[in-house]
Amino acid sequence: MSTPVSPEIVNAAAEAAVAVAQTAQAEESVLGALGVNWKLFIAQLANFAVVLFVMWKWVYTPLLKIIDARTAKIDKGLQDAEAALAAKTGAEKAAEEAIVAARREAQRILEESQKQAEAHRSEAKAKTQAELAALIQQGKDTLAAEKEKMVQSARTEIAELAVDAAKKALGATLTESQKKALLEEATEHLKS
N or C: which end of the chain has fewer CB atoms below 10 A? Predict the structure, then answer.
């Protein structure tokens, strides 16, 4: 039991089929007019997709990795160069500070050695003056002792002369005890 199909529907379907065929033919004729074979075009498109996949998988991706590694290496080199420049600048500053500190230390040592030399000179001068004063005092003491000795010797001689003169004046000889007493008396008299 089939249902009858209206002739209008059949005509519409036939017109649609004709339109589709005409469109396909028109497309084939447009592509044909351009010299494109759609079967060949699809095959070339598949080949291009395979080549694109192979290039992406085994050329483009490794090449990107190499480029990224190279970029990272260059960046690291630049960072190292900046760090080296900063270290060089820091080292130069440290060297300048060390030189300034060394100059200050040298100046301080020079001033200290000058002070020590002056103190040593003053000490040597004071020591020399003390030795000189001691020598002068020793000379004075020696002179005083010699003077005292000479005075004592002169007193003794004078006393002996006085005793001899007394002896001659008295005309007698004196005993040793008398001589001694006269000498002591004359010495006492000369001391005062």
Answer: N
